[in-house]
Predict the 3D structure of the following.
Amino acid sequence: MARPFDVNAVETKWQQYWMDHGTYEVDNDDPRERYYALCMYPYPSGAAHQGHVRNYTFGDLIVRYQTMRGKAVLSPFGFDSFGLPAENAAIKAGSHPRVFTEARMAELKASLVRLGAVYDWRRTFNSHDPEYMRWSQSIFLAFLKNGLAYRAEAPVNWCPGCMTVLANEQVNADGTCDRSGDLVVRRNLEQWFFRITDYADELLADVDELAWPERVKSMQRNWIGRSEGVEFALTFAHDASKSLRVFTTRPDTGFGVTYAVVAPEHPLLDELTTPEHRDAVDDLVARANAATEMERTTSSSEGVGLDKRGAFTGSYVINPFNAERVPVYVADYVLGTYGTGAIMAVPGEDERDFDFALAYGLPVIHTVQPPGDFEGGSYHGDGVHINSGFLDGLDVAAAKERATEFLVDHAGGLRKVNFRLRDWLVSRQRFWGCPIPVVYCDAHGIVPVPEEQLPVLAPDDVVMDKTGQSPLATHEGFLHTTCPICGGPARRETDTMDTFTDSSWYFLRFADPFSTDRAFDPAEVAKWMPVSQYIGGVEHAILHLLYARFYTKALIDIGLATGVEREPFARLFTQGMIRYEGTKMSKSKGNLVTPEPYFTTVGADGLRLFHLFVGPPADNVDWTDQTEDMIEGCARFIDRVYRLCQYDDVFFHEERSELDLAVERAVHRTIARVTNDLERWSYNTAVAALMELLNVISKTARASTGIDRATLDEALDAMLLMLAPMTPHVSAELWEQRHPDAPSVHGQAWPEADPRLVVHEFVTMVVQINGKVRARLEVAPELSDEEASALALANEDVVSALNGAKIQRVVARAPRLVNVIV
RNA sequence: GCCCGGAUGGCGGAAUUGGCAGACGCGGAGGCCUCAAAAGCCUUUACUCGAGAGGGUGUGUGGGUUCGAGUCCCACUCCGGGCACCA
């Protein structure tokens, strides 16, 4: 494409200008209204791809737009620089992860600068900066001191490929590792946890108040998984002094209990197992232990029952509802980590119990009357209770209440709320992360590293190999230290923190990255928080957002973030993915389309405009053969603006006329539309409105009838002001050409629409006969319904279309429409 | 299985409150400029019948509400995403 100006020269000129002038630096004591715009902390994966371009184009538009709206806009940037890919690459290349990471950081940062994204670079930091690590560790110790961090042995998800423990969130539904795809296995290890479950209720309740996409909110609710029920005791048949506690959400189905189940790891299993069933039970337990968590918790696609494996323990318990003996089984479909690790089984109303009962020949009793067309199996709907003694005749809700009361009175029942959410496992047996700052002393046990010794930094002289252990675990210099309490020999913790901890508080530090004596000054942070607009991919809908919410609440509660809003992200926007031939673009698939070639052809402005214009920001974009043409179309639009600003082929006239008024009205209507569209994340229609405006201006100015000089100049200025957040480089360049003495376009105020010019002078009224359009007439907007009807019925096209038919009714909605019913 | 989205020309999409369906752009067709091309500019472009004027049809499918439905209600089909032995 031949361009009317040197795109690359213009773009680098303005990028340099913004950097040199600190245009987007903002101080914490800025008196203007505050706005905190933030794109999610990026992992430095290398040169930018179109997903980054899209993300940062939206973010940059908001920063520039809100600045023009007169706000003090906080726009920080830094890297989530710890993480597995760097470590794996370093192992492969035999180098240090830092070398790899910092090279990638430089690449991505250069791409973003080249895109024209602007930041307050004074505030930048990265997760692996010693200063940031110091406060990450300090926060860990504060959690430890306040009982929010603890160490426990737990069955954990171990990925043989990554050679580390994974959080539940990092294990896919099919039991494979989210990163490497290896099959995850279970192991028992001593691990560090954060007590996120203490916040389960608040994390769930506060979701309702968030201005987030409904989809993301529902994912969070789903993940937290609150369920209300009752926990009660099933007394042993052979020893009335002992009992098995179970949790259920369906106490109303108690009369349908035909057996009970304990998880293979249940502490009472041994006691419940009789000698003649010992072998079968041991066999089942061994098999369950060998299986992965996911193998145990995922039903086979073959369907009915056969995949649920269990064994009779030989013992019985008493069903408190009807005093009947029911057998106790051990089965792999009951999890030791949820509820009490034991259940009452009701095959009549529970699908899983039904499958198991079918496979093991256990009786099925229906306690809720299913509807007539019920096909059999278990029934989960509402209905009248049957076979249920004192509950007969009640619906599910009423029976639940009566049964709960009964259990509370007669079976040690307690109303209970259980959550699917588990505590957050934060230990990682990896090198490239933030070391957990504790030491182990034979005399004093777990001892926190004193604050003044932070940060604990990993040594540089490590051997990155594939032994299955972090190189820290075998590094003698790192490993051996002295106990801060007694000075005796001690061993350092060699695990590092999950990198999600780094991204759980970075947004707080961005508000006050200058503190040297603490992670941040809460008073400074409170000025900016919550983040006004958070932007990122939907892939972080559960993990990152939940952890960051937890950190914020926890930091407030332990006094480190006093006065800060409890919900960190007021508004969240999740942008669509860029896809290529139906799949997500990714480096591993080799289908990345990098922005660099476009920077040199259509420029950053052209590419930005494409991403804004291609469709709704929340929708996915399919990168196809057509995409190139659309990008060129966007560059073509920029060129047309450029040429018009040079007055190419423009005719001027002396006297202002109706033609000029029409242009002026179009300008103000466009200002109103674009402003509204930008506020509601409708960037594609905002661009369309500007294209329409250009068509109007250009048509008028290039017609032989000509345009008034002042009208054209005002229209072009308005155009450039509105384009400034979208195509910042060319807008700044043209503004400078037109206003050599005025500040840069980005220092100008956003234009205001004059309401008197926004309304149309005439509007097109449609006349329908039986709902079909038969005539269009130009009318004044303030026309009344009566006038509209009269006008419509007098119109000759309407009269001829009616052809003398008898009018039944006339519906008038002035000034838009009149519908004549015949 | 459950929960969220979504389905509109050849393509990306627009229609903010129930009121002109298809804005804007891409692609296509024709033209201007040019020795020629590129670039640029202009016209046209939902489908269909018609030489034309003009008519008919049309927003995944089938019903419904309404003077009027892409928009609201009911039933369904397909596509995308999330959750899925959590008792």
User: Anything to note?
Assistant: The CA atoms of residues 15 and 21 of chain A lie 10 Å apart. The radius of gyration of chain A is 34 Å. DSSP finds 26 helices and 30 strands in chain A.
